[in-house]
Amino acid sequence: MQSAFSIRSKLTSGISIYAVIGQLAAEHKAINLWQGAPNFLPDQSLIDSATRAMKEGFNQYAPMAGIPALRQLLAEKIAKLYGARYDPDQEVTVTAGGVEAFYASITALVHPGDEVVFFEPAFECYEPIVRLQGATPVPIKIPLDTLKIDWDEVAAAITPRTRMLIINTPHNPTGAILEKCDIDRLIAVTRNTNIVVLSDEVYEHMVYDGMTHHSMSRYPELAERSVVVHSLGKTYHVTGWRVGYCVAPAGIMEQIRKVHQYLVFSAPAPMQVALAAALENSESYFALAEFYQRKRDILLSGMAESRLDIKPCSSGFFMLARFNDFSNSSDRDFVFDLLRRMRVGTIPLSSFYGDGSDTGMIRISFCKDNDTLREGGRALANWRP
Ligand code: PMP
């Protein structure tokens, strides 16, 4: 259809790399190590609970902030895990996935002309959401050899216009987590400022090798300036249900809810009922660390003979691999080559940088069933230039 309208683009980014890889992967029937979504079923009891909730009539709008029983359980869970007391009525909001919580929080709190500091490589939605507010994204690159944030660089990037600092721990795509020394520096750089910390903690339970997740909720001085975002989709292997939540002090949450009510109004009702039933059993999330650590290790042992230089990964769903000792390709071409010749899908790391920095690395996902991990590991190990 022809249109007479001239459209001025609000976002300059093109089609997401996930759509490009997804289409090519389907054409080549490639093994899926690119997507951060499980390819296995969630617990049958969760599916039964959701089905029952629909049959019992939970098919209309849920309360705007989320079903009260679910909010109560989420507040209790955070109190138990991190020692913070959030009021379920005023300080916990159930959202349509973690992504909606980012959108509502950034829209509510960031004004045109403000600056938002975040770290690259980065989960892809932060930057465009900041831009859509007429604000300025200020990316800081994480050194890929150490995966340690340079806090002096962060301190230097903060100006009177800095309104928000976005943290992601455990981190997509590097698999790194913040340690206590990072938390101390974060407290120091934000002290005596008006900076809100938006903390993406959707992989809070996927932490391996005895490491500890340091939630912003655990530290009162940070909790009072933080919006902490969680994902029930990630925790219960149901990313398509679109249920997440965020917690924040009442004054901040009041502003977030003003946006949430006009964005989606409420998250899916039957899923909230089912997830509340699942949350009664804390084993459902405590078991995740061991479950995914084993998956990481299955993939790693499959790739033991690989020419790729695999970076250590202690959390999350992803690991990084460097290929440029053996190939001069761009990371996109390398990924396309893996798709065509080895029939395995991965993501070029350049897609996690606003400026498209190509560091000769790819991201590999291990939230897959064990057969897929063995097959995918073998395909990557068999790659030759
Ligand atoms: N944050 C990070 C770091 C992620 O990797 C993802 C999903 N890939 C999300 C947030 C999205 O969470 P949700 O599915 O709950 O919207």
Shape verdict? globular
Number of domains: 2
CATH architecture grouping of the largest domain = 3-Layer(aba) Sandwich
Low-confidence stretches: none
Question: Mind telling me the CATH superfamily name of the largest domain?
Answer: Type I PLP-dependent aspartate aminotransferase-like (Major domain)
| Strand order, sheet with most strands | 2-8-7-6-5-3-4
Describe it.
With 385 residues, the chain is an alpha/beta fold. The protein has 2 domains: 17-42 and 286-382, Alpha-Beta Complex (Aspartate Aminotransferase, domain 1); 57-281, Type I PLP-dependent aspartate aminotransferase-like (Major domain) (Aspartate Aminotransferase, domain 2). It contains 15 helices and 13 strands. The protein has helices at residues 17-27, 44-55, 68-82, 97-109, 126-132, 151-157, 180-190, 220-223, 232-235, 250-263, 269-279, 283-286, 288-302, 331-342, 370-381; strands spanning 31-32, 92-95, 115-120, 136-141, 162-168, 196-200, 226-231, 244-247, 309-310, 318-322, 344-345, 347-348, 361-365. The strands form 3 sheets. Strands 2-8-7-6-5-3-4 form a 7-stranded mixed β-sheet, sandwiched between helices. It has a 4-stranded antiparallel β-sheet with strand order 9-10-13-12. A two-stranded parallel sheet has the order 1-11. The mean pLDDT is 96. Bound molecules: 4'-deoxy-4'-aminopyridoxal-5'-phosphate. 4'-deoxy-4'-aminopyridoxal-5'-phosphate is lined by residues 36, 97-99, 123, 168, 172, 200, 202, 231, 233-234, 239, 244. Its cofactor is pyridoxal 5'-phosphate.
Quick summary of this structure?
With 385 residues, the protein is α/β, with parallel strands linked by helices. The chain has 15 helices and 13 strands.
